[in-house]
Structures are given as structure tokens and as C-alpha cells.
Amino acid sequence: MATSQAPTRQAITLKGSCSLVTEFFKYAANTILFQRGVYPSDDFHMVKKYGQTVLVTQDLALENYLDRILKQVNKWLLTGAVTQLVLVIISKDSRTSLERWVFDINVVEPPSDSTEPSSQKPESEIQAEIRSILKQIVSTVTFLPIIDDPTVFNILAYTKDSADVPADEWVDTDPLAIEASKSQQVKLRSFSTDVHRIEAMVAYRYEG
Amino acid sequence: MASNPKTPSRFRSRSDAKTPLTPSLISSFNAISLSPRKHPADLSNPFLARSRPASPVKRATTGAAFPSSSGVTHGGVIRKGGVESRLDVVSHDYHPPKVNQNARPELKRSRSTPSTRERTLSHSSSHGDRFITTREDDVAPASLSSTATANLAPTATSSPGHTARLANATGVPLNRRVLAYHEPPPASSNAAFLTTQRNLARPLYSRADLPSSNGTWKDKSRKVPTTPERVLDAPGMVDDFYLNLVSWSALNAVGVALGESTYLWSADSGVVSHLGDAPQGTYVASVDFSNDGAYLGIGLGTGAIELWDAGTGQRLRTMQPSDDAGGQCASLAWYAHVLTSGHSSGTIHHHDVRVPRHLVATLEGHAGEVCGLRWSSGGEVLASGGNDNVVNLWDGRGGDVGATTRGAPKWTKRNHTAAVKALAFAPWAPLLASGGGTSDTCIHVWNITTGARLHTYQTGAQVTGVHWARDRKELVSTHGFPGNALAGWAYPPPSGSSGSRTGAGAVAGSSSNAKIFEIRDAHDARVLFSALSPNGEVLVTGAGDENLKFWRIWEAKEAKKKSKAKQETSVGRGILSIR
């Protein structure tokens, strides 16, 4: 009883929703890095998550790096300062951005007049939505262009102007956009908790 | 006598082509390429400053300076200024520098010029600037007063109008900051493994090295030994691009000219024999075996041609140049009983070696020294390349022509931009490959019959020799500066690099696709002389580093095992000297 109670609680509170979203980013980023070959595939090991196996890096350096980023993202989520997270895959040699995985973060405004939470989404439903996004990321391999050159990635956070930014850790940067004429965009599924709504999209460089 | 003025000129041209020139060339290129880069940068900044987008740039610097100097509070001032007083741009343009100047006087000095510039700018903006349209004034200041936009807009294109348009186009609100973590993601621990793995895991259709429909087989897995099978000392080998000092006969003997002496090295037995010396005061400029390998023609610096019996080591005759022969005989080519010689004056002579009056024809088609000369295997055509960057193809049918006959070339090509020494006829198709010198670095492939240029390989280095494979659709080229390399090329170059289009003048792109193998630094000096073994498997190269090296580049497919056994024995012999 207690176990089933905890997740539902998690989904409705802000804190719980933030950690859920953060966790989703962790697995989504890992899936992208694995599927797009940014890191070699045997850097990853399989982990049971969301009722399916997800490949997660076991490279300690990368793991720590992602953790540090997501910790700050979590803080921003709590204040509602972050509006978009972008994972950009960049060609290592030419430094051109090849793919942009965009996750829009929308804060769902709770209706102020209602006292009791009107729509309580069950945890299982959220998990199913997350699962379908992750599966969609996996399936994008079928249409995304094959990347031949070595690549690196970069995680960008679009924050509000008033965001509290740790000055020595996060720096303002170029959006690393792909030229509009050479870019194709595919919208992926979305998922929502009671507080957040995450919409996923991938834009990739396609000339021809 | 005639040779004496020629020889210094030869050496002068040689030193011109050699390394002393190249660094100076490069440095001058650097100077050229750097100076325009500086100027636009210098010009662009004043321009930016004058036409008002300097203010976002300025903001960017102040905004960046604040978090680094004293954290969030100063940043808060900026942001407040941006968000709250959107209409009052001018006053907030003033404020941040003042705070800065009060806080730290050392910044004042460094910022003095930008701040004055900003002051004038703010004035100009308040009075209205003739460079800026009113529309931009309406749109830009409100959005630009935030630090976010200044940071969002890349500094190179930070015109306010551009930023606004960019924001409109991308749908990114301007009061947003784009942040990235300060350190780049860690590299994978085994990056080298990743590349091999990618190659293995790549789907079949994305691999470039598939056989194409036109018969090219670019098998990258093919191993070409990158070390020579054998190295021979060749002391005194002249380091002169225009000479042709190595020949390999059908009887499997290598003829090498070292200075004024000529040596034969039997590839079967490894025995070295000293064939003979050039007369006093001159040197050997070219050697070539007759088609049956029984005779060796030796071209001298005086323009005379000696005929030697390779079997007995006897000099059979010396064909003195006629009066109008011009200078050293830098190239020789045999077809049956006709020995063709190319001279430094640009004339080509046909000598019938059987008759006393040996000079049967003279071909005038070059203005510079003829350094490349090749008969097609059937004797139909003769190709010549000269220091005048010209490739000529001559009809080989001499007929009843007298000594005074002046032939005209079948076709003339002036595509090369440097001396053409490398010439080769394909044994399996009517094709001629020609390679140009340092300033050209191209190998052109011509159709013999039509003269059409079919393909071009950009080699990136001086082409000193080119040879076709006998039983593969490949060619190998030897190179001088830079690289001193041997390179193998697929023919035709793989499609996709736009090389296989049949239209005249199709160029094989960067040619990197076409390259099958490359042996870099094959010699310590430029690889000048090369000859293919009679079985078409081994290439011998000679260079100014006084080495002869034997490269087994094309292993016959059926005789692979045999040759491997042979290789082992030959390795045991090690380095031999032929002198």
C-alpha cells in the first residue's frame, strides 16, 4: 500500500514532478548518446527502468558530468526557471551542429480556484508516456542521417531571464542552431506530470 | 661545350623546384592569407560601433564581467535595468560603466574607449542615427536592453535588426538565456576503438568501398606493404627531376645510372654489373631498355645516345647528335628498332638503331625540355611531356619519312600547369595518364583516340611518375614534395565524387575516395625515378637520397603464395649495394 501511495504523491507535488522530469532527462540523454553513437556502445549497460531496459552509460566521467548538469536542471525546475533543454550533437571536427534534441518544458498552471487537485494522473500513465518517448528516440535511428564523423554533444538550457545561474558553472552560449534551410524537424511524443509538460522534438541537418 | 651552359641551367631549375623555394612560397602565402583576415576584422569593429549594434556588444562585455567579478548582485542590477526600464534605454546605457568605474579604477582604463564610444552611441541613438531605420529603433531597444539578447546574438552578427529578425524567425523569445555547462563533455575513454567499431557497424549501403557498376574495386582492406621489399644503395644518383635514370627490362634487369656510370642489377640473381661509363665531362641523363630487354639506350648530357648490349655489356654504337640537336637527352623511349629521344631544346628524335643514318624523324612540339617520353605498347602512339607543361601525343606510324620530316602532334594538351614528366599508357585500355609537377599536382587521364580528358586526380604533391597496373584497374603515382610518397589510385575514380561522368573534364573531386593506398615518405628525398617490373608486381623507385627501393604494390592474384615464399628469401638478403 505504501509503495503504491508514494508514486502518486510524487507525481502531484512540485518536487516529485521535478525529480521525475530530471530522471527522464537522464535516461533520454543516455538513450540519445547511445543511439546516435556519440559514445561507443560498450560504454553503456542495460538498466531496467520504466518497465523496459534502458541503456545507461557506465563511463564514470560522463555519468558525473550528466549528474552535475541535471542537478542544476533540477534546481531550475523547482523555480520554474528553465524552459527548454537541448542536447546538441556536434561534429567534432567541423563543429557544426548535426542534431538538436529539444525538450520543451512547460509548467502546467494549476487552476487557482479549485482547492483539490482535479486531475491526478496515475504514475503508471506517466511512465507509459515516458516509455513511449524513449522508444521513439530509439526508433528515430531509422530516419536520422547516418553520422560518419566523430561527434561530441552539448547540453544547453534555455532559462528565463531571471534564472539564478551559478556563474562559474554555467555560461551564456550560442544556441548552436542548425540553419533553417538545412534543417528538418520531427516532433516526438510528449509526457506530462501534474506540474510539468515535456514536449520532445528532434531537428537534424539534412541537405539534399 | 654545348652542355656546359645547359648543366648550370639544369641545376638552377632543379634548385628552384626543390625545397628552398617552398618555405618561402608558403610563408608568402601565409602573409597573403593573414593580412586580409586582419583587415576585415579591423574594419568591421568600427563599422559595428558606428552603426549602433555596438551597444549590445558592449552590454555583452559588461554582462559577462559582472558574474565573474562579484556575482549575482551586480547581475541583478543589469537585469533589473533590462526588464523594468525598457523604454529608457539611454539612461541604462550609462549606468553600468559608471558602477564599474567607481568600483575598480583599473577597469576604467581598459574600458575607456568603449565607454566613450558608447556615450557617443547613446547620443546618436537618442538623436536618431542615419544608419538605423526607425523600425529597428522601435523594436530593438526594448529587447536589446536585456543581457540575454546580447548573449544570445553571436557577436559577429549582432546587428539589432538581425537579432530581432532572428528571434522572430526562430520563435525564441528574447528574454531568454541560452546556457551551457562550462566544461565540455568528457571524451570517451576508448576513442580509437570507436572509430573501428563504427566502421564495422556501419550499414552496408553507407560504405564507400563497394564495387561500383563501372568496375572499380576500392578494397581498403587490401594490404599494401608500406616498407620496401628491398633497398639498394645508389650512391651518386643525381637529384634532378628532369632525368630518367631507372629502367627495368623485360629480361628482369634493372638499369640504373649513377652520375656518369651505368649499372645493371639482375633481379633474378641479385648480381650487379657495371655496364660502362659516360665519356669524360658528361653524365648519363636517361636510360631505357629496348622492348625485348636486350639493348640499353643511354642518353648523355651532350645529347649523344649510346647503345649497349645488356647481355654482353658491350657498347654497340654511339649516335652522335646532329647539328641541330639541342642539349642533353633527358628521356628515351623504345619501340622495336626505333629509339626515341627527347632533348632539352624540346625536340624529339626518332633513331633507327639498325641503320647508319640513324636519325629518321624529328618532332617539334615542345618549347621546353622533354622530360617524359613513352611509347604505347603496340607502337601506335608516342606520348611526350615537357617542361613547357604540354602533353603531346604523336602518331607512331613513321612511314617513309626522311630526316627532315617535321611531324605534328596528333593532339596537344595544355591542362597541366607544371612540367609533365609522368606518362603512362594503360595496358588494358586506350588511356594515357599524365602527371604534372609541383605547381600542378594533377594526374589527368586521357583517351588516346579522342584526346578527351576522362578523369583527374588531385594528388596534392608533385607527380614524378605514374604507372598503370597490369591486371588491376589501378594506377600508382610517385611523388616529390610534399610527402615523397607513393600513392595508388582506383580507376575510374569512384562515382559520387563526380569523377565518372562521361562529359569532358570531369574532375574526381578531392580524389580522397579514389586513393587506395599511400606510402608516405617512401624516400627521404623526392621520389624521382620509377619503373615497373616486367611482371607488373614490383615498383622500383630511385630518389635523391641515393637509395633504390623495391615496393611490391600489386601482387598477382594467382601467384600470391609463390611470391610470399620469394619475399621471405629476398628479405634474408637484406640491403645490397650495387656499387
TrEMBL record, chain A:
Pfam families: HORMA. One of its GO terms (biological process) is mitotic spindle assembly checkpoint signaling. Its main location: nucleus. The keyword Cell division applies. InterPro entries: HORMA_dom (IPR003511), HORMA_dom_sf (IPR036570), Mad2-like (IPR045091). Keywords: Cell cycle, Cell division, Mitosis, Nucleus. It is found in: Nucleus. It comes from the Eukaryota. GO terms for cellular component: cytoplasm; kinetochore; nucleoplasm. Residues 15-202 form the HORMA domain. SUPFAM superfamilies: The spindle assembly checkpoint protein mad2 (SSF56019). Belongs to the MAD2 family. PANTHER family: MITOTIC SPINDLE ASSEMBLY CHECKPOINT PROTEIN MAD2 (PTHR11842), MITOTIC SPINDLE ASSEMBLY CHECKPOINT PROTEIN MAD2A (PTHR11842:SF11). This is HORMA domain-containing protein. It comes from Pisolithus microcarpus 441.
From TrEMBL, chain B:
InterPro entries: Cdc20/Fizzy (IPR033010), Quinoprotein_ADH-like_sf (IPR011047), WD40/YVTN_repeat-like_dom_sf (IPR015943), WD40_CDC20-Fz (IPR056150), WD40_rpt (IPR001680). Transmembrane segments: none annotated. Residues 116-133 have a biased composition (Basic and acidic residues). Residues 232-551 form the CDC20/Fizzy WD40 domain. WD repeats lie at residues 363-395, 520-561. Residues 21-33 have a biased composition (Polar residues). This is CDC20/Fizzy WD40 domain-containing protein. It comes from Pisolithus microcarpus 441.
